[in-house]
Model the fold of this input.
Amino acid sequence: MLEIDGLKVRFDGVEALAGLTISIPAGARIGVLGPNGSGKTTLFNAISGLVAIAGGTIRLDGRAISGLAPHQIAAAGVARTFQSVRLFHRLSVLDNVLPIAGTAAAGSHDAREAALAALDVAGLSAQRDILAGDLGFYDQRRLEIARAVAQRPRLLLADEPTGGLSQAESDQVVALISRAFGPDTAILLIEHQVAAVEALCPRSLLLAEGRLVADAATSDMRRDRSLADVYFGTRLAH
Amino acid sequence: MDGYLITILSNIGMVSFVALSAYILLLSGQISFGQQAYFGIGAYVAGIATVMWQWPLAGALLFGSLAAGAAAGLVGLATLRLSGIYFAMATLAFAEIMRIAAELFVYRRDIGGIESGPDGVDGFRDIRYFFANEFSPLETCLIVYALLATVLAILCIIERTRAGRMLRQIGEDPLLAEVHGINVMSVRMIAALAAGAVAGLGGGLYAHLMTYVEPKSFDIMLGVHALAYGLIGGLGTAFGPILGVLIDIGLLESTRIFHGYRMIVFGGLVAVLLIVRPRGLLDEVAVSRIRRALRRRRDAGD
Done:
């Protein structure tokens, strides 16, 4: 469904992504692991069109999306949440969701229904008329997910959706992501808590220095030396 | 109603169009110092249409508005990829070019035995449509408010549609809006066209009510005021900029309480509001509270 071939991204001569090749089947749920600076968020930015790519191709359902504008990539079915919560604080909760719901809906009535349904799934129906900026942090995290739900995406790029939350809230958010998206939606999840990744993603990718160093079952990766090596730098020391 | 009050009301109405024009762009996140140019284009084009071509008023106003919208579209092509201070400078530069062009613009013809038309620095005098057709000041004032009410109603309806929410999303965070499927450039373009057309309509009315227009009618002070009206009155609703106009022209200019000190009071008001309430009196928070209170009252009434 998502085919990434030889993807390269450069920042001022530094290779943030040095030729990634990844294949994501439809509906797959895949963790993206790696230390800070390994290229996880850059990979998401490249897929969603926010950074220019220096080489390689990205295909969604056979169609090349690399080089398209971000809004076209969104319309093609790529949803995105941000590591630091990014909302329209001056708009109501419902108004945060309505425009994006419209990209997947047939008409304005359908868009409203989809937006309300997405808020319902995320448990935010009661807050729909208040400004997003007045929400608590946990609700803001859930609103980001509600927005992605309303988009009915083929692919969700979730960048640390549990960042800044308590353990209980994190578990709730992971459970929300797990039930809110059907088998048609593939999920790529960046997450530092390996337990959270394991709960959602049977398979994980491990990035280091812009390269894919492992692609395996999450449970195996947990036991495998490579994860610890990459995180603690033993591999890089050589 | 006495003549003075009608004149003040007409002034408030006409300036409201420029305030709304600047407001539309402020919603899209762009600060334009050049909306007065479209006011000027609308004034000249509509004036030429009734005086030189003997068009009826409705056609002339529409044509002036469309011409201003078209000019805004052309300027938009060149400037909408800019943002912040660069966009502000580019729009100001265009407006000054238009003002200076109007100082050089001479288009005189003999109309019914009188030489008429724009005459450079002296401006365009004797736009006598209302006089010739025996409209009373009250009637012309009503025309202004009928058109203003129409524009306001359209803006209020659009704000409640998906397009209106898109505009506000773009205004707050264009990158996030883009990632959420909104073509930021095309929405900004439509906003610029609409803003130009609204200012042009106000300009057309101005030319006919004042019976003249000159290049300094649309100098930078008009553009600065237009921006300030939204920032004073609030960006949460289209009524915000109207409130700003009411405060400035209705209170400061017309009552003469601050006679001679109007600009000092006005400037001070803008400065204070930008510090304590940067998005104006009727900002998004205030409008959201009012909406929820109204909804509660309606629900309680059912």
Notes: The mean pLDDT of chain A is 89. The first strand of chain A starts at residue 2 and ends at 11. The two ends of chain A are 37 Å apart (CA to CA). The longest helix of chain A spans residues 108-121.
